[in-house]
Amino acid sequence: MPTLGFPLFPDQASTMAGRVDQLYFFLLGLSVFFAGLICILIIVFAVKYRRRSDDEQPQPIPGNLGLEIFWTLVPLGLTLVVFVWGARLFFVTYYPPNDALEINVVAKQWMWKAQHPEGHSEINELHIPSGKPVKLVMTSQDVIHDFFVPAFRVKKDVLPGRYTTLWFEASKPGSYHLFCSQYCGTQHSGMVGRIVVMEPTAFQAWLSGGAAGGSMASAGEKLFRSLGCVSCHLPNDAGRAPSLVGLLGKTVALQGGRSIVADENYVRESILEPNAKVVAGYQPIMPTFKGLVSEEGVMQILAYVKSLKREEGAQVKK
Amino acid sequence: MNAVIAAPRRHYLNVNYGLKSWLLTTDHKRIAWLYLIGVTFFFFIGGFFATLIRLELLTPQGDLVQAETYNKLFTMHGVTMIFFFLIPSIPAVLGNFLIPIMIGARDLAFPRLNLASWYIYMLGGLFTLAAAAAGGVDTGWTFYTPYSSIYSNTHVALTVVGIFVTGFSSILTGLNFIVTVHTMRAPGMTWFRLPLFVWAHYATSIIFILGTPVIAITLTLVALERLFHLGIFNPELGGDPLLFQHLFWFYSHPAVYIMILPGMGVISELIACFSRKRVFGYSFVAFSSLGIAVLSFLVWGHHMFVSGQSVYASMIFSLLSMLVAIPSAIKVFNWTATLYKGSISFDAPMLYSLGFIGLFTIGGLTGVFLASLGVDVHVHDTYFVIAHFHYIMVGSAVMAYLGGIHFWWPKMTGRKYPEPLARLAAIIIFLGFNLTFFPQFVLGYLGMPRRYHVYPPEFQVLNVMSSAGASILAVGYLLPLIYLIWSLRYGAVAGMNPWKAKGLEWEIPSPPPTDNFETTPLVTQEAYAYGVADAQAVYPSGEPANV
User: Fold this and answer.
1) What's the sign of the alpha-carbon dihedral B88, B90, B96, B99?
2) Which end of chain B, N or C, is less packed with Cβ atoms under 10 Å?
């Protein structure tokens, strides 16, 4: 990259960055070609056909159907190429790989809070390993924010009342800007932070250092007990509420004959709006936990519910 | 004849005097002047906000104004420029003045409704200005919920009332234009003899009528949620924050085309006149306006690629957005082809037109970047977007507006403006514009988010370039304000047709009489009969008296 004392092009620090840049340069080439073509034509015509006397009267040209069809079809073809190329990239950014490291992010005016599965939490910083896909499950406590890492070429809005996800795989250790790019109020431009990408071994060292108060799942288990969830959600389906073992990713039959695949948003909604989707065969007796548990708390419970999937058949009460 | 020359000819400007004769006029030409004063006022208000924004961004720290003030500045800049300058500018000033004349009519179909539209517009504008004076609003012109409906502590309700009211002015103007074009064309003025300016305004009017009610409803819902806590957009009350974005962009994307389509109409007229050629591919240019109007309602989701909307919705919206490139490209190619073997002169309106084509091409091509999903994820909500839409809305729409004002100034006033000064201003604006906004493409790809009061120091150089450009641009905009006012009194007398242009408006005196035409004209030619033997179409009985 040329250096003029200030950057002209962003770092490429994720597996996505190079792929987005390829399409960007293709578009740039296309733009330079067409803008240049139009410019040259205008200049050539303007000079060649400049008015030489005030009475000049050029011959009328009615138009040309062949030309019209030509310059309709050429842009159509090119834009379709750009569409397919861009859509394929978008698909990749939309679906995280299954083995992605999952980190929870809660945004609020005006800070970023991140929780690692091992229990570390960070504010306006996020430490991640390089060479490993990372999936962020994000929500907002107030207005809409947006998690934007230019060096990774990824961004995603962070909404109140639901989870959105974003994934990336950092390719180069270093420290990169994290911006909130959805306007969120007075200190919007102060809602910035840094993404620290570390070699996997250094990341492991970072994780094992520091006093983490137990993993997210264990914090979630504590909440699960203290909020009384445990009295109805028994590990087998014997309780007044359905078992949560192996819930994530399972298809759940709902009252009224519908069914949905249980994902993070479904679990979150069931905690805060229990009557929105009631499992078939159960009574709508669960109270709402809105106001009783924070967004971080919901994420911890979610981590606990997810952990039940892995240790299939494990006892909820130990 | 001697007696006639001694008494000054009666025209729409001197037919009567006094404030009342202007404020109660139903003459479309005088109402155009009322709008001209209104939009010029709001343009400089909006420009003032922009000046403060660019001054603040000279340094990475927030040192000129506080964060809250900065947020209010960019909000008021956007609101003023979009709703009170860009949307009414070309249609309500030039469209109002020219559409009846271009189709051979005495006035619009509903002259009193036309006057009412102006009052509604001013009322809405003053409401919004009152909100600004009372402390302003800090939501951004996009009013995203739940920030606008719950969290902002500023005058959201007052501002949206102003926009709501002004919307009706757009609806009524659109209605007036559509009815006028359908019912009041002079004998012989068939649809395919209409100037492309009229086609473009017809397409714009359709958007006015179909789109504006949606923004009115949307902003009303924001106000209802804010004032009465109805749960519409706020998830805590059971609402959906993304619903707002769908409703808002359903209007506001077409609104972008409201701002550019009339400009495209102006450019078609100017290119034809200053190359003395009929517009190449007339019917393709005409139908591409309608094509843009139709597509404009089908692409709103491209503002929401990273919002969490479904991946398939994003794909469809990306594909449809790509299609907008086609009618836009058709226009650019046809304008360029119009120059071929023409007789090209470089008067100020032509300089604006050539500048328009270049800037619109860049604005349009960078639109393809944004329509492409993979790249949009990175540049969405960055300065890349800011640069792109300023290339369309300032680089293109304002250039077209100024080009049009210069071109029809002799018709509107009967006077010529000082040509060398006008050319200089056009060149200054073109250079200043590019210096202001081109660096913002680079900033955007680097990742600088929009609406940032403070920014990382490595972005400073590009921001300083942009601010420097803005100061040049400001000079460019102030120049016409001065010499155009000067020319009202001191400009050379223009005569009926100083450009040797075609079209009905050039076959009546400058300034036109109140009734435009002495007798109903009979049209025997297409709009761009350059190079065709002159047929005196307008006054079959011969020259009008008192020219």
Assistant:
1) negative
2) N
How many angstroms separate the first and last alpha carbons of chain B?
10
pLDDT of residue B533: 59
Q: What is the pLDDT along chain A (318 residues), one digit of tens a residue?
A: 455 678 889 999 999 999 999 999 999 999 999 999 999 999 999 999 999 988 888 888 878 899 999 999 999 999 999 999 999 999 998 889 999 999 999 999 999 999 998 888 899 999 999 999 999 999 999 999 999 999 999 999 999 999 999 999 999 999 999 999 999 999 999 999 999 999 999 999 888 876 566 888 888 888 888 888 888 888 777 778 888 888 888 888 888 888 888 888 888 888 888 888 888 888 888 888 888 888 888 888 888 888 886 454 444 443
- CATH 1.10.3720.10 assigned to A11-32+70-213: no
Q: Is residue B18 part of a domain?
A: no
**C-alpha span between B301 and B250 (Å, rounded):** 8
pLDDT digits (tens, 9 = 90+) for B452-483: 999 999 999 999 999 999 999 999 999 999 99
Nearest beta carbon to residue A27 from set B343, B368, B460:
B368
**Where is A115: in which H helix or E strand?**
strand A111-115
With contacts defined as CB-CB under 8 Å, which chain A residues touch B344? 45-46, 49-51
Specify the DSSP element, H or E, that contains A156: strand A154-158
Question: Which architecture, in CATH terms, is A216-307?
Answer: Orthogonal Bundle (1.10)
> Which domain, by its residues, includes B44?
26-534
Highest mean pLDDT among A3-7, A251-255, B238-242, B384-388: B384-388
B88, part of any domain: yes
Flag whether pLDDT at B2 surpasses 50.
no
Closest Cβ–Cβ partner in A153, A181, A186 for B71: A186
State the DSSP code for B313: H
Q: Do B276 and A42 touch (CB under 8 A)?
A: no
Residue B504 gets which letter from DSSP? G
Find the helix packing angle between B111-133 and B156-183, rounded to 10°. 160
Nearest CB partner across the interface for A34, out of B71, B365, B462: B365
Q: Position of tokens 């060292």?
A: A205
Considering the domain boundaries, does residue B435 fall inside one? yes
Determine the distance from the C-alpha atom of residue A301 to the mean position of all C-alpha atoms in its chain, rounded to a whole number.
21
pLDDT digits (tens, 9 = 90+) for B155-169: 999 999 999 999 999
The CATH number for B432's domain is: 1.20.210.10
Q: In angstroms, how far apart are the furthest CA atoms of chain A?
A: 100
Sign of CA dihedral B25, B29, B32, B34: negative
Judge contact between B480 and B70, C-beta under 8 A: no
Report how far apart, in Å, the C-alpha atoms of B32 and of each of A132, A266, B156, B482 are: 63, 57, 30, 20
Residue A259: Cβ within 10 Å count: 13
Asked if B476 and B428 touch (Cβ cutoff 8 Å), the reply is: yes
Cα distance from B214 to chain A (closest Cα, Å)? 22
What's the gap in Å between the CA of A114 and the closest CA on chain B?
Answer: 20
Whether B544 has its CB under 8 Å from any CB of chain A: the answer is no
ipTM over 0.85: yes
Distance, in Å, from the CA atom of B525 to the CA atom of B529, rounded to the nearest integer, reads 7
Contact B504, B104 (CB under 8 A): yes
pTM for the structure as a whole: 0.91
User: Residue by residue, what is the 3-state secondary structure of B458-482?
Assistant: HHHHHHHHHHHHHHHHHHHHHHHHH
Chain B positions touching A64 (Cβ under 8 A) are 280-281, 337
Number of domains in chain B: 1
Residue-level length of chain A: 318
Does some domain include residue B227?
yes
Closest CA to B203 of B132, B279, B288, B122: B288
Q: What is the pLDDT of residue A94?
A: 87
pLDDT at B544: 44
